[in-house]
């Protein structure tokens, strides 16, 4: 599919409200947030603290939003935020966050306060979607007065804590459906032409241009390489049309673009990009790659702050 053949809208014109309503009618529930995500959150009662930090209210449905926290929060410990499912269709982001919470979070609770928000966009999870029901991308909406309920809710919660973060790790995927659906839909919505069809074959990281922390990113890449393959750059030394800074790493202007990883002042930030559509990838491998990112990041910060 190309943006010129996308079935909604008029080529060259931005979508109006009728176009967005037509798009929403085409979306349908494909899996259950309650059964596949909330039940796993509830399974961790007694180990981690569970808090409801908000609720999404759409005509398309109402969704409670949950975070998991390590017990005994202490203002003297550095605080780490892990987010998944900002794009609900990126499955290993959700389940990687939950797997880390289940298997590894308590191993780090002496050194860190850890907050895990495993599924920022539950409607997107259920409909396997990049956008929310308003045809808004939450991961371009992390700014003051956000039009996305999903982004606004987690930002408000983190602000309410009144604590600085040392790290924020945002778990994502790059999928073949970016080309078959989401890039054409974006071009149609904006009345533009999509020119980037690059899908890297493997894992990569997106660092923040203003605080790239290259050694931090390098350590994560080395850890993930033991689990899944790292994406090589294309013939232009680029990934998704962006210059590669080092093997498996590109930089984005996170705050300027309204990305999730850019909404805090944490010095250590990264966005993961797992490639689940690789012929060699399995669901489990993708989940373990996300966990490897988090644990290697925390190990690096622990070592660096001791030096």
TrEMBL record:
Q: Can you supply a Gene Ontology BP term from the record? A: proteolysis
Question: Entry's SUPFAM superfamilies?
Answer: Zn-dependent exopeptidases (SSF53187)
Q: Please list the residue ranges annotated as the Peptidase M14 domain.
A: 29-307
Q: Quick check: keyword Nucleotide-binding in the entry?
A: no
For this UniProt entry, the molecular function terms from Gene Ontology, in alphabetical order, are:
hydrolase activity, acting on ester bonds; metallocarboxypeptidase activity; zinc ion binding
Q: Which Gene3D superfamilies match?
A: Zn peptidases (3.40.630.10)
| Record's keyword terms, sorted | Hydrolase, Metal-binding, Zinc
Q: Which InterPro entries match?
A: AstE_AspA_cat, Peptidase_M14
Q: Which cofactor does it need?
A: Zn(2+)
Q: Which PROSITE patterns match?
A: PEPTIDASE_M14
**Which family is this sequence assigned to?**
Belongs to the peptidase M14 family.
Record's protein name:
Peptidase M14 domain-containing protein
């Amino acid at each position: 599919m190309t943006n010129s053949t996308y079935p909604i809208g008029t080529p060259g014109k931005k979508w109006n409200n009728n176009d967005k309503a037509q798009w929403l009618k085409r979306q349908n529930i494909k899996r259950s947030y309650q059964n596949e995500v909330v039940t796993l959150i509830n399974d961790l009662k007694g180990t981690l603290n569970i808090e409801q930090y908000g609720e999404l209210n759409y005509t398309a449905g109402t969704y409670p939003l949950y975070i998991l926290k390590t017990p005994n929060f202490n203002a003297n410990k550095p605080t780490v935020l892990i987010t998944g499912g900002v794009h609900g269709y990126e499955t290993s982001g959700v389940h990687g966050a939950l797997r880390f919470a289940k298997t590894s979070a308590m191993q780090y609770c002496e050194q860190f306060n850890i907050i895990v928000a495993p599924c920022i966009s539950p409607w997107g999870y259920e409909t396997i979607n990049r956008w929310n029901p308003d045809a808004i991308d939450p991961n371009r909406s992390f700014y003051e007065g956000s039009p996305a309920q999903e982004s606004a809710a987690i930002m408000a919660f983190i602000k309410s804590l009144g604590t600085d973060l040392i790290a924020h790790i945002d778990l994502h995927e790059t999928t073949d459906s970016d080309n078959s659906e989401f890039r054409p839909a974006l071009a149609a919505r904006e009345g533009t032409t999509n020119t980037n069809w690059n899908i890297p074959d493997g894992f990569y990281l997106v660092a923040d241009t203003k605080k790239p922390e290259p050694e931090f990113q390098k350590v994560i890449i080395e850890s993930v390489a033991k689990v899944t393959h790292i994406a090589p750059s294309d013939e232009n030394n680029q990934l998704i049309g962006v210059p590669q800074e080092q093997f498996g790493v590109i930089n984005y202007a996170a705050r300027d673009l309204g990305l999730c990883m850019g909404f805090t002042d944490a010095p250590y930030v990264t966005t993961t990009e797992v490639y689940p559509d690789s012929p060699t990838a399995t669901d489990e491998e993708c989940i373990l790659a996300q966990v490897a990112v988090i644990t290697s990041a925390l190990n690096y910060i622990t070592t660096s702050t001791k030096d």
